[in-house]
Structure to design on (261 residues):
């Protein structure tokens, strides 16, 4: 009843009704992970988040729904960040590492190999891997930039009066700041999550450094004869990008831990 008092339900068939259905299916404020898994809607969206080629577009849509209309809910933004990185660890990390190891086992034969056609990353376009890695970074930091402008709502189980009183108390000069949408700013939103976001940036830079070092080591003797673009579409570059992507995704394991209730 307390949650219902926060607002009237949206009209059926409206954009707000669709938004409420999606967000409650993936980011419910009154259900733990054990309660969410009982819903078929949860498994529908979870399956989309586990497909490497689809997950970035799915999470981009989810982030738009969280912020439109705004201001966004603090609880949903925090859970969005944790779920995004957790599914990255499972799909682009564990999943692709298993598939890549299996492909190496199948493409290496006695005296020859077919890794140039059936090895890890050989059938993937380089843009697909770049979208997955850069898309994760963009979504994470977009969420982080919006987080100070979020407000506590259903996720903290506060009534509307309690939330307004908490805002009116004032937590410093930063509370009076606003962005172009008129949202009030509070740098304390998200708590200590910023530490994990800086950790993610370090992981991305480490993965990019690994990719560059592996490419330099591979092309040190032969150089980039034939042009850089020709090497980008080579199976060696695709395989290197594939494993750098896996390395970056496996480093997202700490986010998975925070998803465990």
């Amino acid at each position: 009843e307390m949650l219902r008092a926060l607002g009237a339900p949206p009209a059926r068939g409206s954009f707000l009704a669709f938004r409420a259905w999606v967000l409650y299916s993936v980011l419910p404020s009154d259900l733990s992970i054990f309660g969410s898994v009982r819903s078929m809607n949860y498994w529908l969206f979870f399956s989309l988040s586990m497909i490497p080629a689809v997950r970035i577009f799915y999470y981009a849509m989810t982030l738009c729904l969280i912020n439109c209309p705004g201001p966004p809910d603090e609880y949903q933004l925090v859970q969005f960040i944790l779920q995004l990185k957790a599914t990255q660890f499972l799909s682009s990390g564990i999943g692709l590492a298993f598939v890549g190891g299996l492909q190496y086992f199948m493409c290496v034969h006695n005296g020859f190999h077919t890794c140039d056609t059936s090895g890890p990353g050989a059938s993937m376009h380089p843009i697909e891997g770049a979208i997955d890695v850069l898309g994760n970074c963009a979504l994470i930091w977009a969420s982080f930039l919006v987080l100070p402008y979020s407000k506590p709502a259903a996720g903290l189980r506060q009534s509307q009066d309690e939330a307004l009183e908490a805002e009116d108390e004032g937590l410093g000069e930063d509370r009076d700041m606003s962005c172009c949408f008129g949202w009030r700013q509070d740098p304390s939103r998200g708590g200590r999550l910023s530490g994990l976001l800086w950790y993610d940036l370090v992981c991305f830079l480490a993965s990019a450094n690994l990719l560059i070092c592996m490419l330099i080591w591979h092309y040190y003797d032969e150089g980039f004869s034939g042009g850089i673009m020709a090497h980008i579409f080579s199976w060696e570059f695709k395989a290197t990008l594939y494993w750098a992507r896996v390395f970056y995704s496996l480093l997202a394991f700490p986010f998975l831990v925070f998803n465990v209730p």
In short: The chain is about 65% helix and 0% strand. Residues 74-107 form the longest helix (34 residues). Strands lie at 108-109, 112-113. The first strand starts at residue 108 and ends at 109.
